[in-house]
Amino acid sequence: MSIERSHTNERASKIVKHNGVVYLSGQVGDGESLSAQAIDCLGRVDTLLKEAGSSRQHILQATVWLSDMTYFAEFNTIWNDWVPSGHAPARACGEAKLAREILKVEVIVIAACV
Amino acid sequence: MSIERSHTNERASKIVKHNGVVYLSGQVGDGESLSAQAIDCLGRVDTLLKEAGSSRQHILQATVWLSDMTYFAEFNTIWNDWVPSGHAPARACGEAKLAREILKVEVIVIAACV
Amino acid sequence: MSIERSHTNERASKIVKHNGVVYLSGQVGDGESLSAQAIDCLGRVDTLLKEAGSSRQHILQATVWLSDMTYFAEFNTIWNDWVPSGHAPARACGEAKLAREILKVEVIVIAACV
Fold this sequence. Notes:
3 copies of one chain form a homotrimer.
Chain A: E1 3-8, E2 13-18, E3 21-24, H1 34-51, E4 59-66, H2 72-82, E5 90-95, E6 105-112
Parallel strand pairs in A: 4-5
Antiparallel strand pairs in A: 1-2, 2-3, 3-6, 4-6
């Protein structure tokens, strides 16, 4: 069972595939507001999953970190719109400060791939 | 390798099965005290794992979020009683505020299933 | 698909293997400084992965918890040196208080194994 990595630098690979499962590095988004960042972040997840031979319909587990839990309702509105009906992943959401002070949301995804 | 989801709403599936592995959404519990919530939370994990064709003997990885690390010893007492002898999972435990202010513990599980 | 556990006590197994994947319990390190703890922590990851028939070249996903995000740059210097060129895992890093107040970093690893 080989390991395929892409978008690899000295710190991380954005995509790692192994045995029909793809692991993405935690994705964040550009923008000032939580909504702007969430939309950009989930767009990056889409792009990476597509490149990995997967999609938002194939997510197994999503872990969401918010820099402040007061964003919870606002994030869920965007998240629920994004999740394909009938294909929601297992999810957990907790509060954690992120790599840069401006960052409000990070999404960590494990998905099935071909 | 198909994906089986159950207890699926617009946000999450409580159970996602793929390739012999089951991913549960982060589980929390009712109650006021940490102990009450932990016992209820682990009971929900039991119920979901059973439904998925797994059990607490088959947990591969457990991630525990406590809203305050001062609960660490109290949680471990309940956790250690719950874990079947010889079948403890890989575990990590850190502090994170949770979705609602009242919540003191959330447990995220990846397990093997038939 | 059997489950193999080792270094198992009443709370956790340091190593859990299933279906070609190894899950390690969150690893921390001894020392006062972030650098000392990070080096010790990653050494423990090396030792456990080797014992599991894996290595730092086979890490699929790494989740890093820092007790204070001001350690981010210092941790990355040590991390980048440790990661084998071309084999970086999917990674996420967030802030979380850890089990003991002195602890500054915890690393949670999922890796491929033979």
